[in-house]
Amino acid sequence: MSCDSYYGIGDKHQVCQDYALHGSIPGMEYAIVADGCSGAPFSEIGAQILCHAAKYQIALSYSTGLFKECSAGTLSSILGNSIFKRICEISTSYPISRKALEATLFIAVKTEDAKFVFGWGDGVVIYQYKDESGLHKIVCDIDYPANAPFYLACNPEEYLKNLQSRGYDDPKVLYTQYHIEDDGSFSSEIKNYPVDKPYSWKSMAPYMSEEGGLTEEVDIVSISVCTDGIKSFQDEKKSPIQLMEMLPEVVGYKTTDGEFVKKRMFFLKRKAKKNNWLHSDDLGCGTIFF
Amino acid sequence: MPKLLGVDASIAAKTMHGFDYTSIAVEKLGASEYTVVGIVTDKTSSVSPFKDDLERMIGASVGACRESARSLNLLIRTTAFNSNGIEELHGFTLLNTIDPDAYKGTIHPASLTNLFDATLDGIEAPDEYIQGLFNAQRICNANGIIFIITDGDDNSSSHSPLDVKEAIEKVRQSEVMESIRIILIGVNDSDSYFRQKLQDFVDEAGIDEYLPMGDVTEKKLAKLAQFVSQSISSTSLALGTGQPSQPIDNFKF
């Protein structure tokens, strides 16, 4: 088992607002990504604070046995509250505005008993699993109305008021879930949830459950959490490169040891340069490979 | 699994000009970028009087680099040459896995000087090794620094300075190695005629730097170890910047 992460600046950005980290403590591996809100000043710092606060809180929750006892939804609430509390403390201790803490946060965790993913805001979660017919992927693309993600640091009332003023009376978060077979064929399903419902998933190995979409027995190979940067590649004619086309570039690992995510991202960027793809957005990705 | 100097040599390969090299199993290379270090040492008859100091110098250079913050990103290959052949003391391996004391007793001086062949091997092997790792997407980026240590002018090579020059140009034209720095270190090169011969080789082959040591002493070899480790460290820090490493300023023996 190994984990690695990568973050890198987009072609047109002056600072990288994405951040990623990974690591392990005895009994637990994790990969975390954050994507700072582009409209918020110093959100690159906010993204980093959020990742490190999340790292601290998941380690704390693990050491107190919460990962063993709780469902994904309960853990998501506990983690969300504790991370939020911690970043608020930081924002009062340091001269940084609460706005700077507005960033997407996705966490993948593997413990001895189960695998988890938690997410607040927009992003992409990629599960790879294998069975007798090959290697398959489940991809969950999480999007928000008006390109305004509901971040962990968002004030719900202000957020809803803002969206309502833009014509979204009953805004919903949009989960597009793709199920991709080994041969490349795929099916998709769209689900709507309340905007303030965070993404959470727990697998009691070897089953996938809850938002992961599968209930039969599967052998999960990897879980990747990515910022929306993986959806922002464009071809020479400025047409977006579809997520399906991007997936092999993102998770088609040639090696799965050491800095395997960094290597993959380097070769993705190299291919993008060779093909004259444009990539204006920052990119963050963290993977646990089992 | 064959071992050289106690180092895993799982993979054996041959360069374009037929030089043999070995390397550790690719699975052991976890990092995405590496600085490749080559130490090419003369083991002709004339190094006999100071061969122990030479071995200590290599060990001290490697030992100092183990302390580097980027020691996990350093790959090293060490060879020793004379007209009997180019001997790989160890193939490409992670520097932090080497015991600096293991170089003791590895240099067995004999025969004549095949300096051009050894230099060509020292440049071609890392280039082809790194190219292979890059093509297999095992690494994303690399740079290199090669030290050639000699106390004699070439009198036994089958290759010429022009072949060395072509090899250096090939490395620089390929997109794989971000930069490479090659340094020729002249030992016991106080004689002006011999020194000029080495300078001619440097000029003809396009080697970056010639560092004349003059008469060899234990103290000078210890200083050389510092120079080698500092140069490796500087090269490693330059990796990813797209720039070659900065030479060590005002270094004098």
What's the tally of helices of chain B? 5
Strand order of the largest sheet of chain B: 7-6-5-8-9-10
Q: Report the sheet-strand fraction of chain B.
A: 25-35%
Poorly predicted sequence stretches spanning 5 or more consecutive residues of chain B: none
Helical content of chain A stands at: 25-40%
Query: Which word captures the global form of chain A?
Result: globular
- Mean pLDDT across every amino acid position of chain B: 93
- CA-based shape of chain B: globular
Report mean pLDDT of chain A, rounded to a whole number. 91
Structural class of chain A: alpha+beta
| N-to-C CA distance of chain B | 41 Å
User: Separation of termini of chain A?
Assistant: 4 Å
* Largest pleated sheet of chain A: 7 strands, antiparallel
Keywords for this structure?
heterodimer, A: 290 residues, alpha+beta, seven-stranded antiparallel sheet, five-stranded antiparallel sheet, 28% helix, 35% strand, B: 253 residues, alpha/beta, six-stranded mixed sheet, two-stranded antiparallel sheet, globular
